[in-house]
Structures are given as structure tokens and as C-alpha cells.
Amino acid sequence: MVSALLASYSGRLKENYGLNVLVAEGQHGENVHTALYQELAKNIFHPKTRDKFKAAFADLVSRGAQVIILGCTEFGMLVTQADSDVPIIDTSMAHAEAAVDLALGPESGGL
């Protein structure tokens, strides 16, 4: 998981769903946090920052991650599925798709 609020979610995901959550740690975690507050929240997107996210993804995968969850709304504006060797879940898109499915109702067949 790549998130600015790592610990608060990982414990609940383990308890409620049995998921083993890996989070960006050390320099990777610092890079994610710095990018969020010093760049992305200010609508600044640097290619070097994307490279740092890709390095964080690679580290998570090397530790056993099977999917990357973008746990902050701004992250999906910087990185895409092409930036990872494993599936990426952009939580902003997942929430938007769920809202549309709910609004359209079950007979619509979803997005």
C-alpha cells in the first residue's frame, strides 16, 4: 500500500479481512510522504517523483506485494498501471466507479 495514513488502515485490513498489508517504508515511505505534501497537493508533478514511486512499487513487490493500492487521491494523478509490474488499485477511481454503480442501480450492469 502506498498511503500517507499507513498504520491506521493496515491493522484494520488485517483484522477485518485477513489481508497482509505491506507499506512503503524507510526512504520509500519518506519519498511518498514528501511527494504528497510538497508536490502533489500543490498540483506539482515531476518525472523524478514518478520514478521514486516506481522504486517504492518495486520494493513492495520484492517484499511480496501482489497488488499496489494507491491510498491517497492525488497518487493516481502521478502514476498509472504502466508504472507497476502488478495491478494498481486507484482508490479514487474505485470509489467513483462504486458511486456510479450505486446511482445507476443493479439493473445497469455496472461500469
From TrEMBL:
InterPro entries found in the cross-reference section: Asp/Glu/hydantoin_racemase (IPR015942), Asp/Glu_race (IPR001920), Asp/Glu_racemase_AS_2 (IPR033134)
Domain of life of the source: Eukaryota
Leader sequence segment: none
A molecular function GO annotation: amino-acid racemase activity
Protein known as: Aspartate racemase
Natural source organism: Penicillium steckii
